[in-house]
Amino acid sequence: MPEITGDVLAGEVRKLRKDIPIILCTGHSRRLTPEQAKTIGIDHYVMKPLLADELGNIVGKALENDGTDK
Question: 35 and 6 in contact (C-beta within 8 Å)?
Answer without folding.
Answer: no
